[in-house]
Amino acid sequence: KQEVTQIPAALSVPEGENLVLNCSFTDSAIYNLQWFRQDPGKGLTSLLLIQSSQREQTSGRLNASLDKSSGRSTLYIAASQPGDSATYLCAVRPVDSSYKLIFGSGTRLLVRP
Amino acid sequence: DTGVSQDPRHKITKRGQNVTFRCDPISEHNRLYWYRQTLGQGPEFLTYFQNEAQLEKSRLLSDRFSAERPKGSFSTLEIQRTEQGDSAMYLCASSSGTDYGYTFGSGTRLTVV
Questions:
Q1: Any bridge partners for residue A102, and if so which?
Q2: Phi, psi at residue B86, to the nearest 5°?
Q3: Does B6 sit within 8 Å of A105, measured CB to CB?
């Protein structure tokens, strides 16, 4: 059974710091991995989608990497800003149940001015 | 098309009442998904439609829950005889296929009192 774990559960950093959020998954048989952002009480906003054949994806200050064989992904946020404060969720799309995403519990990020 | 729309945004209901939520996916997406999210957790899969066919249902979806997607367009999720344990955020998402990411709506926050 695929399980997704995100560490740390919460993170507080001063503005301007570069930071890394971690995601691990137990079964490497995935189609892709997607990172989302969720603001309190709101829906999910897609940040980056990495296909299983890819190593990384970049969008602005965000860079996500994928090491499928070791079951790990990282989300790197450069020069963090208070507006980056949110919960970040990673989700994998398993090969054996490709209709659904399996989510981690998220990392709650607070960027202090 | 501005994305996935969900209605209502918030719903407060008394225990035992029936509630219905609506989701309008991105028009060119043939796949539609419902997820449920409780506080501090990642979303959990409930059910999946490809066009108008409901292809998969989670064990989380008890017989009090029913979902439809008539004509492969919008979808409704109905909860009958609501219980306090049904209080959660109900999220709808759509996609074009396995290689494509999910687009989520803003969710419907249900509170059962």
A1: A92
A2: -80, -10
A3: no
- CA dist A26 and A31 (Å) reads 14
| Whole-number average pLDDT of chain B | 94
What is the C-alpha to C-alpha distance for residues B84 and B34, in angstroms, rounded to an integer? 19
CB contact under 8 A, B107 and A36: no
Give the nearest chain B residue to A106 (CA atoms): B42
Polymer length of chain B: 113
Strands (E), B25-87: 31-37, 44-50, 53-57, 65-68, 75-79
Q: What is the DSSP letter of A39?
A: -
Restricting to A residues 71-110, those with a Cβ less than 8 Å away from any Cβ of B are 89, 91, 93, 97-106
pLDDT in tens, A46-55: 999 999 999 9
